[in-house]
Amino acid sequence: MSYSAKVYMEQGGEKLVNGGEISVVGGKITKAGTQASHIADVAVTATLTGVDTGTDMTAAQAATIVTDLNAAKTAINAILKALEDVGILKSS
Fold first, then answer.
1. Distance separating alpha carbons of residues 35 and 28, to the nearest angstrom
2. DSSP E strand stretches across the chain
3. Residue 10 — pLDDT band, cuts 50, 70, 90?
4. Which of 12, 40, 63, 91 has a CA between 20 and 30 Å from the CA of residue 51?
5. How many other CB atoms are found less than 10 A from the CB of residue 67?
6. Sign of the C-alpha dihedral, residues 27, 29, 31, 36?
7. Helix, strand, coil shares, percent, the chain, to 5
8. Rg (CA), the chain
9. What would the pLDDT profile of 13-67 be if each residue is shown by its tens digit?
10. Buried (b) or exposed (e) across 36-56, using 16+ Cβ within 10 A?
11. Can you tell me the distance from the alpha carbon of 37 to that of 57, in angstroms, rounded to the nearest whole number?
């Protein structure tokens, strides 16, 4: 019977191979001792207040765009939060 480790250092020591899960508890992930910089949350600043939609776009179409931008903002901010929670990004 033989045993193959799921986590091992390749010959020469330049690459660590992990065949399982990495759990960072109370720590952070760094490269050469430096954690990735914080990325500010995405903000949607466009509104329809006082906008003349003219003949090119209806108010309903413009409202749909704002809804889509807000959905994108929510998704991107969730990704950023997940990266912060696991220590890949600084939280601020």
1. 7
2. 7-9, 16-18
3. very high
4. 40
5. 11
6. negative
7. 30, 10, 60
8. 23
9. 889 999 888 888 888 888 888 888 888 888 877 766 666 666 677 778 788 888 8
10. eeeeeeeeeeeeeeeeeeeee
11. 39
Task: Residue count of the chain, please give it.
Answer: 92
Q: Which amino acid is at 40?
A: A
Which amino acid, residue 39? I
Structure tokens at 6: 């799921």
59 SS3 class: helix
Residues 6+ apart with CB under 8 A from 10: 16, 17
Which regions of 13-77 does DSSP assign to beta strands (E)?
A: 16-18
Angle at 43 between CA 39 and CA 44, to 5 degrees: 150
Instruction: State the pLDDT at residue 44.
Output: 79
